[in-house]
Every structure is written in structure tokens, then in C-alpha cells.
Give the backbone structure.
Amino acid sequence: MTDSEDRRGGDGSPWLTIDVDLGERGYPVRIGAGIRHTLPEVIAAIGARRVAVVSARPAEWTPDPGVDALRVEARDGERGKSLAWVEELCGRFAEFGLTRSDAVVSCGGGTTTDAVGLAAALYHRGVPVVHLPTSLLAQVDASVGGKTAVNLPQGKNLVGAYWQPRAVLCDTDYLTTLPERERVNGYGEIARCHFIGAGDLRGLSTARQIAASVARKAQIVSLDERDTGLRHLLNYGHTLGHALERATDFALRHGEAVAVGTVFAGRLAGALGRIGPERVAEHLDVVRHYGLPTGLPAGVTTGELVSLARLDKKATDGLTFVLDGPDGAELVAGVPEETVSAVLDAMPRQSRAGASAR
Ligand SMILES: NC(=O)c1ccc[n+]([C@@H]2O[C@H](COP(=O)([O-])OP(=O)(O)OC[C@H]3O[C@@H](n4cnc5c(N)ncnc54)[C@H](O)[C@@H]3O)[C@@H](O)[C@H]2O)c1
Ligand SMILES: [Zn+2]
């Protein structure tokens, strides 16, 4: 991580840069207040003469790219994350006359960066894309690492491509308008970083928490860009997290579900003798510190969660979880169902899914 002391954000704090080291596909992730205004420099460095700016934020929050621009209004949300939207975007790019040497800019939550990223990957078999993530979750996770996708009626993120952006600008000013629940949601991904090698981020400024989470993701992605091994670590807390999202019909936000999944992962690692009681308790402390839910929502059964956990994409050999241990977190396959069920049965219960499940 480098602090660019020469450049300071509107709040007086330095802008931070994390380099995603992927050789010629490498790129910077820049973090700080007001950093969206450096977009013209980024576009100039790419050499694009025209840009399509697809933004889910109001016009006053969508920065000028400094060159001839097509502005496309987008809407964040899973429903818009569709192939139909990707087709429409590509059509708009074509009408505008966007060429392979031009660029696309996404500005919005993770649903927008994912869909626009896929459109950029497909249009002319790939045009440069710059992401301006505006939710905390998109800044710490969705916009970094090159995974793009849209949903099908059959399931989430079923159609996608790996397409690394040319730069990511995480402007912390965007977070000032973020609803509280979305802010807390983003902390679900930051909390899990505590257990996958990012260290204790509690007490740091938001910009430094984002930077540290991005730095850890960048490190993992640079070693396993195509998700064949190490990238599993990023799924800490996610096996149960995904099961909880589905069991609550997505009433629980992703980061909230991952938070509960993280508490569970700590308890499961404890039950398997991989970590001691203090480390188990640390899971609860960290998740609670960020104001995230720690218990299972009411109405979901152990049996249902175990069945859903079996569907996890990592589960090639029985129930599979990323679990902490003496050598840090690792993928653990073939976890006995009785242990998983017993740990789930012992988890605290909350009264209402997604609401005051804190
Ligand atoms: N590609 C990846 O590696 C990756 C990783 C994690 C998540 N994702 C994807 O990211 C998506 C979730 O992202 P998300 O949580 O940002 O969802 P989202 O895009 O739906 O945004 C969440 C909510 O926050 C609002 N919002 C966003 N920025 C705002 C701002 N600055 N001010 C006020 N409101 C704002 C949006 O309008 C929306 O209501 C999922 O589709 C998930 O699959 C992708
Ligand atoms: Zn996640």
C-alpha cells in the first residue's frame, strides 16, 4: 500500500493506492475522499478518446471523464443484473460509436460494477473498464478482482467473465449517502478479512479499512486469478452465508449473512479442535464490533441450512468450509454432518430475519 501524501482528499486524509499485481493486466485501486475527480487522468492514461459512463448515482455524483462521453443511467439492484441489460448497454455503446480503444466507466453498487464489467468484457470482445464503486461492499470486494457476472432466473451470477478493470476509484465521499444498513452490509466483508490474513482492522479509518481489505484481496487474486485454489479464502463465512441468503429468500443482505457465517465458521473450527475458545470468541467480538448480526435468523432450520450448504460451489467432497486453524484459514472438505448440525443447533437465534438480528 502506498500513501500518496502529495494528494489529499477533501477531508485532509491522504489518498491510498493498492496495486493489483497481475503483470500486464495489473491496475491500481485508489481510495480516498474526492478521488472520483481523478477520472480524467485515468482516462487520459488509457488513451481513450470517447467514454461510456454508466452510472446508478445522480448526475452530480457522476464525475466528468474529461473526453466526449455517453451517459447511461443505470439502477442498482439484482433485478437489473441481467443479460437483457448487458445487451442494452452494448447496443448503446454501438450507437455511440464506442471503439475498442475507447473505454467504459461504471459508477454504482456491486450490481452495477458487475453488469457493466460484463458488458465491457463482451463489447468488441473486451474494452477497457474503470470502476467507481459507490457502496462499501462494492469498494471492498465487488469492484476488485476481475469477476463480472449477471443473474439468470435459475440463479445468481451464472453468466460472467473474468475481465480486470484498468483502474478502480473508491471514493469514500460516496459512503456519506449510503443507507446505514448498506454500510453495515459492507462491513460483513471487512469483518471476514480479520480471519484471512488482513489482521485486526478495528480502530482504523474507513479508508484504511477499505485499503487493507482490498490489499488482502489483491494479494489473493494475484496468486489465483481464476479461482482454482487460494481464492477460496475470500469465501470465509460464505458457505453458511450463501445458505442463509437463500433460506431467508435474500431478506438477509449478503454481508449480514456472511457475518453470521463468520461467527459460525469460528464455532465450527472450535468444535473440530482447529482453534481454541479464545479464537472462537474473537469471531463473535469482531462481527459484533462492526454492528453486524451474530445469530441465526428465526424460522430457518438446521436441516434446511445443511442441505443448502451441500450445494455450495466449493463442496466437491461433502460439506466444505473455509476454516481457521493453526496455520491460518484453509479449505476443509468432508466436515461431518453431525458436527455441522450440532454447531448450528447451538447458535443463538434472532427474532426476525434481516432486521434487528444484531
Ligand atoms: N464481482 C465480484 O467479485 C463480487 C464480489 C462481491 C459481490 N459482488 C456482487 O455485488 C452485488 C452486491 O453489491 P452491493 O451490495 O453494492 O449491491 P447494490 O449494487 O444493489 O447496492 C446496494 C444498495 O446501495 C445503494 N447505493 C449504492 N451506492 C450508494 C450511495 N453512494 N448512496 C446511496 N445509496 C447507494 C444501491 O442503490 C442499492 O440500493 C451482488 O450482485 C454480488 O453478486 C460481486
Ligand atoms: Zn461476499
